[in-house]
Design a protein that fits this description.
Elements: H1 2-17, H2 22-35, H3 38-53, E1 58-60, H4 69-75, E2 80-84, H5 87-100, E3 105-109, E4 122-128, H6 137-146, E5 148-159, H7 182-190, E6 195-202, E7 205-211
Parallel strand pairs: 1-2, 1-4, 2-3, 4-5
Antiparallel strand pairs: 5-7, 6-7
Length: 213
């Protein structure tokens, strides 16, 4: 299937990039160039997730190298679970957590379309700067929404190049997330049944907060 092939390609690319390329080139390069203060705003979302969760479990998907996850884990009294499909990212995140002494951070390899958790497992879910490269936006968002408990929150940050706004409206929902507008991503979040409570733009980035009622 095309989507399964796309996931394998994305996984291979990010596994290869995890050790030496991802943080200097992507996190500290592209995210800052195209997202302005995106990194600082993503860290602020992490602090909000900790406040919302109380002592409840928090999910971060995709965890990447745990660059954004470790500060969250240090601030949180409960369990933090990081998930990534890329084996290289999982190895890098686990190593970073060990170096940082983030013992409450557990990192597992899993597919965003098939999260290995029960319904309502997490008090808060983070999805930091990853949706743009995950094939199958609606399926991924549906899984993130599924694992949030009632009263819990989803915190999303995403970089997009919204070329799809020039296309007929009926074709936009089939576009990769990277080509959708921020408002289109927010609409996809709302379509999961979550209540979108905030949408904020920062250059080509969009930050979204949504609640399970």
């Amino acid at each position: 299937m095309p989507r399964e092939r796309a996931k394998k390609i994305v996984s291979a690319i990010y596994s290869a990039a995890a050790e030496r390329i991802y943080e200097p080139v992507v996190v500290n390069g592209a995210f800052r160039l195209f997202g302005g203060n995106l990194n600082e705003l993503a860290l602020e979302q992490g602090r909000r997730a900790v406040a919302v969760a109380g002592g409840g479990a928090i999910l971060d998907m995709p965890v990447g190298t745990a660059h954004f996850t470790i500060p969250l884990a240090h601030a949180h009294d409960g369990l933090v679970v990081g998930v990534d499909i890329a084996e290289g990212m999982v190895r890098a995140a686990r190593a970073a957590a060990r170096r940082a002494g983030a013992e409450q951070l557990s990192v597992v390899q899993a597919d965003a379309h098939h999260l290995p958790f029960g319904d309502g497992t997490f008090a808060a879910v983070m999805c930091t700067n990853g949706l743009q490269v995950i094939p199958g936006l609606d399926r991924a968002l549906g899984e993130l929404a599924r694992v949030i408990r009632p009263g819990g929150m989803l915190f999303v940050s995403v970089l997009t190049l919204p070329l799809g706004s020039a296309l007929p409206r009926g074709t936009r929902s089939n576009l990769p997330a990277m080509l959708r507008s921020g408002s289109g991503i927010a609409a996809a979040v709302a379509a999961t049944g979550l209540e979108v409570t905030e949408v904020r733009s920062e250059r080509l980035a969009t930050l979204i907060e949504a609640k399970r009622t």
